[in-house]
Amino acid sequence: MLEEIKNTAAWIREQTSGFRPEIGIVLGTGLGDFAEQIEAAYSLDYKSIPGFPVSTVEGHKGRMIFGTLEGRKVVAMQGRFHYYEGYTMQQVTFPVRVMQQLGIRYLFVSNASGGINTSFRVGDLMVITDHINLMPNPLIGPNLTELGPRFPDMHNCYDKELIARATAIAEQENIKLQYGVYVGGTGPTFETQAEYRYFKAIGGDAAGMSTVPEVIVARHMSIPVFGVSVITNCGLSDEIGDHEDVQLQGKKAGVKMQRLFRRMIKEL
Ligand code: HPA
Question: What is the pTM of this model?
């Protein structure tokens, strides 16, 4: 496993003339536009990268973009691998481990999720303050001791200092932020109404099908994480959202997220 990770990282280094990103960014459903803001130096399709699985989900472009943003060297994943697609947790988290080998010192993650906090509205941005993992843990199996400990601590999983910076920037930029706990389930079904109530009862604010595995492996490797979720629907509402409106709200929220990420990266 470790050898595969290192081989892939070495291959990428070769393709990108030794490009050394400082910041890794994972772009979730509908948020791939952000990649256009990067002054791209190299772009690699997942399908060309040895060791990478191939993304099957619509709306996910499936490539890694290397370049600069606000003068900082970044690598962005346009599209991610989900457990519900049938990949193993090792496959889902493989790119994050590769990005660590390439040198990233921060990981920014984003996703779309269903709000279960009743004060949330469609189009809100939720800063992820913590998560509840309802998927298999990606660290099950022999520990990769070179990467991190057998029993990694998950306190301060979402970096408090980065959250505080996001709050300060959002105030200056007049971006409304919500804060909450992301519950990661396997999908691919959306939750039943009873399940949304259950997620709320156990302390969740938003429900989704990604992010948690990547964050767990990043924290295993002691990489500080910042995460934002775009609320695209409200799970506990009786109304079934108008699909077009949900997409529009998602797009608008994506623009806010991009502004926030950009300024945070500038000020890191
Ligand atoms: N549940 C799970 N994942 C999601 C949802 C949801 O309601 N909305 C967007 N992704």
Answer: 0.95
